[in-house]
Amino acid sequence: MNSVPSAEPEFVIAFDPGKTTGVCVARVFPDRFEPYRAYEIKWQHRLGQTFGDLERGSESLWRAVIVEDFKLYPSKAKAQSRSGMPSSQMIGIIQALCYVVGAPTPVLQSPSIKARSLILPEHKELLGTSAHVKDAYKHLRYWFMTEYRQ
């Protein structure tokens, strides 16, 4: 989906879903993006906090909602045996809440893009030490470089 950047302020939210979900929120400009919130959502807060975050930007502020996709591959099936599949549950929660609050349909990205998306030095401090938050950032940056700026 190629898009033309708007002159109005626009924001993007990205999720790395799982039992602990990483979140990164950024304002986007034609030539750059500026993350200003990066945090984790714990499993027990997955509905309320995710709803609050998406609802806050539902007044046409969200340019995109980005989510790392999840697929169960045969090589991982045994390790996931008896799992509640928290990543899949979070993806469903995010998709449903986007619909409820009128946010854009989430863009699902392959987990493999994280290897191609580096963290910019000026953003490292905001992201802290959480691997989930860093992964959400990488998905946001990849979207910015491949979809927003095209």
TL;DR?
The protein is an alpha/beta fold.
Structure characterization notes:
The protein is α/β, with parallel strands linked by helices and 150 residues long. The protein has a single domain (10-71, 85-148), classed as 2-Layer Sandwich (Nucleotidyltransferase, domain 5), CATH 3.30.420.10. The chain is 35% helix and 24% strand. The protein has five helices and five strands, in the order E-E-E-H-E-H-H-E-H-H. Strands 3-2-1-4-5 form a five-stranded mixed beta sheet, with helices on both faces. The longest helix is centred in the last third of the chain and has 18 residues, at 131-148. It is globular and about 45 Å long.
Write the layout of secondary structure elements.
Blueprint: E1 10-16, E2 20-28, E3 33-42, H1 46-56, E4 62-68, H2 74-77, H3 86-101, E5 107-109, H4 124-127, H5 131-148
Parallel strand pairs: 1-4, 4-5
Antiparallel strand pairs: 1-2, 2-3
Helix pairs in contact: 1-3
For this structure, the CATH topology is Nucleotidyltransferase, domain 5
CATH class: Alpha Beta
Beginning-to-end CA distance, first to last residue: 9 Å
Overall morphology: globular
SSE arrangement, N to C? EEEHEHHEHH
Largest sheet: 5 strands, mixed
Question: β content, as a range?
Answer: 15-25%
Q: Please tally the helical runs, counting DSSP H or I stretches of 4 or more residues.
A: 5
How many separate structural domains? 1
Unreliable residue stretches: none
Estimated helix fraction: 25-40%
CATH homologous superfamily annotation = Ribonuclease H-like superfamily/Ribonuclease H
Cα Rg = 15 Å
Task: Tell me the strand order in the biggest sheet.
Answer: 3-2-1-4-5
The total count of strands amounts to 5
Structural class assignment: alpha/beta
Per CATH, the architecture is 2-Layer Sandwich
Q: Round the mean pLDDT to the nearest integer and report it.
A: 84
